[in-house]
Specification:
- The protein is built from 16 helices and 15 strands.
- With 487 residues, it is an alpha/beta fold.
- The strands form 4 sheets. The chain has an 8-stranded parallel barrel with strand order 2-3-4-5-6-8-11-12, surrounded by 6 helices. Strands 7-9-10 form a 3-stranded mixed sheet, covered by helices on one side.
- Helix 4 runs parallel beside helix 6, helix 8 runs parallel beside helix 10 and helix 15 packs parallel to helix 16.
- The chain binds 5-hydroxymethyl-3,4-dihydroxypiperidine.
- The site of 5-hydroxymethyl-3,4-dihydroxypiperidine has 8 residues, from loops.
Length: 487
């Protein structure tokens, strides 16, 4: 007789036909070859070579050497049966002489690298999905004010036009920005990311100029590549007030405003949230928002990319104890949470990843169903989800990473639950294809489903890669096995 346990183990959550199974990476985290083809420094080259900024003094000079090994990496994706690959373009490879005043000449070498990558993907039957900005701003633009300056958004629109014109005939999907929350608040308020500034007013100006860059990018892609789909990727927070109290609800409102609605509302509804503007009135008068900007920012898009890793538990800070800051974004000299003096992020019990991030897959379902409810008619994609865990080691050619397999299984089941509840989710991209440069944390935190030996650059698929390959092959996620409960 088949036991209940056996029946449950072989049960699966079936995904809709045509669902995209992908992996994601970002240029500075994997490419290396930082001077190849005339590439000039980005803010991350500068930041990572500034003593004390990155754990272990790590930097992206070599990273995974994907620039030279991309064919091997594409072959690996094909072996895993992936149907899409989300990667980002290094802006300083494309227009290495850009300044705040002008875009400068386009680098044929820079475009040729990405063109070769696109062709290799297409030949392998893998749909390319390009992110135009995943944090590696040309240093010369930062020198001209960075994201605090409107000129950066204008140059971004021009750069987007160049890339879309060159690759739009073969690339079905462009994503304007990755996680502008991080660019603005970690880059300009808490300073744990490049360019490492700690000025609240600058961070809010950066929020607006990133939103504007998105809108200018959408318009440029539509003109140059009318057949391509256009999206943006946001790291949305599943904000959970710790209790049902009004004060905790108020803490949650503030965090939801700064992380979610300050991007979602202008991009999808053409307005900034009144409450966020009121909360931050002591920091800035928002005069950087000019007439016409919101029309540009709210140009229609085809899909919303959602990155989800961990829940965001918040509560009102009573000031009776030192503030808890376990928000998962590292301890900087300052906080990324502007005008949130009364908000704290309590340390959580229960399972955590190597980043110290709590694991709770319900947030995946919660965010996707919320987006479906609040923004009907928009396709949704999970453009990043994954986890770093300690102890990924190659033993006899194998990397056993059961924690990552469990994490992926539970979060994929949570995506499936959102689809069952009516959310139009069209794809999922695991973060990340390869172990890589995890920003301020350097190479110590490994998010890849493929292990990279940083001394030899040899790639070894982990057990999680083979698990994920099975999911892609079956278009289904196995239901978690349960303890045998009957003979
Ligand atoms: O590595 C990052 C990625 O660049 C952006 N999203 C979160 C990932 C894990 O921290």
């Amino acid at each position: 007789m088949t036991s209940v346990a056996q029946q449950q183990t072989s049960a699966t959550h079936q995904f809709p036909q045509g669902f995209l199974w992908g992996a994601a990476t970002a240029a500075y985290q994997i490419e290396g070859a930082v001077t190849a083809g005339g590439r000039t420094p980005s803010i991350w080259d500068t930041f990572s070579h500034t003593p004390g900024r990155i754990a272990g003094g790590d930097h992206g000079d070599v990273a995974d050497d994907h620039y030279h090994r991309f064919r091997e990496d594409v072959a690996l994706m094909a072996e895993l049966g992936l149907t899409s690959y989300r990667f980002s373009i290094s802006w300083p490879r494309i227009t290495p002489q850009v300044t705040a005043q002008e875009l400068g000449p386009v680098s044929a070498d820079g475009l040729a690298f990405y063109s070769g990558l696109v062709d290799a993907l297409l030949a392998a039957g893998i749909a390319p999905s390009i992110t135009l900005y995943h944090w590696d701003l040309p240093q010369a633009l930062e020198d001209g004010g960075g994201w605090t300056s409107r000129a950066t958004a204008e140059r971004f629109g021009e750069y987007a036009a160049v890339v879309a014109a060159a690759l739009g005939d073969r690339v079905p999907q462009f994503i304007t920005l990755n996680e502008p929350w991080c660019s603005a608040y970690l880059g300009y308020a808490s300073g744990v990311h490049a360019p490492g500034r700690t000025e609240d007013a600058a961070a809010l100006a950066a929020v607006h100029h990133l939103n504007l860059a998105h809108g200018l990018g959408v318009a440029a892609i539509r003109r140059a590549a009318p057949a391509a789909k256009v999206a943006v990727t946001l790291n949305l927070a599943w904000v959970c007030p710790e209790t049902g109290s009004d004060l905790d609800a108020e803490a949650a409102r503030r965090v939801d405003g700064l992380q979610n609605r300050v991007f979602l509302d202008p991009m999808l509804s053409g307005r900034y949230p009144d409450d966020v503007q009121a909360d931050t009135a002591g920091v800035t008068d928002w005069a950087f928002v000019r007439p016409g900007d919101l029309e540009v920012i709210s140009a229609p898009i085809d899909a919303l990319g959602v990155n989800y890793y961990s829940p965001t538990v918040v509560r009102h800070w009573t000031r009776e104890h030192p503030k808890e800051t376990a928000d998962g974004h590292g301890d900087g000299a300052a906080t990324p949470w502007i005008a949130c003096d009364d908000v704290e992020f309590p340390r959580q019990h229960g399972p955590k990843t190597a980043m110290g991030w709590s694991i709770d897959a319900r947030g995946m379902t919660g965010l996707l169903t919320r987006m479906a409810r609040e923004h009907p008619g928009l396709d949704l994609m999970v453009t990043e989800n994954g986890a770093a865990f300690p102890g990924d080691e190659v033993v006899d050619g194998r990397v056993a990473d059961p924690d990552r397999v469990d994490y992926l299984r539970s979060h994929l089941a949570a995506v499936h639950a959102a689809i069952e509840a009516g959310a139009p989710v069209v794809g999922y991209y695991v973060w990340s294809l390869l172990d890589n440069f995890e920003w301020a944390w350097g190479y110590e935190k490994r998010f890849g489903v493929v292990h990279v030996d940083y001394s030899t650059l040899v790639r070894t698929p982990k057990d999680s890669a083979w698990f994920y390959a099975g999911v892609a092959r079956d278009n289904a996620v196995p239901v978690a096995p349960v303890a045998r409960s009957e003979p």
